[in-house]
């Protein structure tokens, strides 16, 4: 139930991995690893789970995730082929003191900020193109290309943290295992009624202890997190279907339309109908 630990490797003996990921769809595969991960979505839309945060992704989206930050990218049902360019590297892939050198201060700052994950809001076309070319390069050319991309995005003023300030990569295994058990369960069950007593039982805690634990570990309440999952589900339905708003609310887990409208506006700053008008056909 906890996120799968991955140990990315390379087939050519180089010190970092760069590859194109293509599939009919990206399935929910909650995992973490010691490498930084730079992911550019090239095809398909879906939902990105990083730590406690749930957001939609689309082609062109670029994120940098720090070490041991649990994450997964899950395609929307029936979305079609999914594709991404993924680069994974450790902090010392060019030597233990490389990023401590004065000329790489901006890159060190970028990597430090990525501990909460970073999403880049307006990545220039040339940066996306450079990333897409990386898997085709080898040896020194690939390494120089990666450093160039990191340098370019380090100055991106649109970069914003993905997870909230209340979340950090798990301080210990016991906390992380409980959080991940809950996250995986809620990813599958959030459109149905969610009862704190039942969720607490999954991690063998009393409801009161679980409530305190969840807020401390996630930086938000269980209700807040479930609402985030439900609203993102609603966003996909609003953008990809012509279902009436009442049906979107019900399929997202809301039986009360006024509650759905209120929660949606709190998280998105728009009414559901306004969101649909702005995002129709973008999923």
Automatic annotation (TrEMBL):
It holds the Pfam family AraC_binding. One of its GO terms (molecular function) is DNA-binding transcription factor activity. SMART domains: HTH_ARAC. Residues 180-278 form the HTH araC/xylS-type domain. The keyword Membrane does not apply. Keywords: DNA-binding, Transcription, Transcription regulation. SUPFAM superfamilies: Homeodomain-like, Regulatory protein AraC. It comes from the Bacteria. Gene3D superfamilies: Homeodomain-like (1.10.10.60), Jelly Rolls (2.60.120.10). PROSITE patterns: HTH_ARAC_FAMILY_2. Transmembrane segments: none annotated. The keyword DNA-binding applies. This is AraC family transcriptional regulator. It comes from Kitasatospora viridis. The lineage of its organism: Bacteria, Bacillati, Actinomycetota, Actinomycetes, Kitasatosporales.
């Amino acid at each position: 139930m906890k996120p799968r630990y991955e140990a990315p490797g390379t087939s050519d003996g180089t010190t970092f991995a760069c590859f194109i990921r293509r599939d009919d769809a990206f399935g929910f595969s909650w995992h973490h690893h010691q490498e930084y991960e730079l992911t550019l979505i090239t095809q398909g839309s879906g939902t990105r789970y990083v730590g406690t945060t749930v957001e939609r992704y689309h082609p062109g989206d670029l994120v940098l995730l720090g070490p041991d930050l649990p994450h997964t990218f899950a395609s929307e049902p029936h979305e079609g082929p999914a594709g991404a360019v993924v680069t994974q590297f450790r902090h010392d892939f060019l030597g233990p003191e490389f990023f401590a050198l004065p000329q790489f201060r901006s890159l060190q700052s970028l990597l430090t900020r990525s501990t909460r994950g970073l999403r880049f809001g307006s990545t220039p076309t040339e940066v996306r193109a450079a990333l897409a070319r990386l898997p085709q390069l080898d040896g020194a050319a690939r390494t120089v290309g990666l450093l160039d991309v990191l340098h370019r995005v380090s100055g991106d003023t649109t970069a914003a943290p993905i997870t909230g300030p209340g979340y950090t990569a798990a301080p210990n295994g016991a906390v992380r295992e409980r959080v991940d058990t809950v996250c995986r369960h809620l990813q599958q069950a959030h459109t149905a009624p969610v009862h704190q007593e039942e969720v607490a039982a999954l991690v063998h805690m009393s409801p009161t202890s679980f409530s305190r634990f969840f807020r401390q570990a996630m930086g938000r309440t269980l209700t807040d997190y479930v609402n985030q999952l439900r609203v993102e589900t609603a966003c996909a339905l609003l953008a990809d279907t012509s279902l009436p708003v009442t049906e979107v609310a019900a399929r997202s887990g809301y039986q009360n339309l006024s509650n759905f409208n209120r929660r949606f506006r709190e998280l998105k700053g728009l009414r559901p109908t306004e969101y649909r008008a702005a995002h129709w056909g973008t999923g």
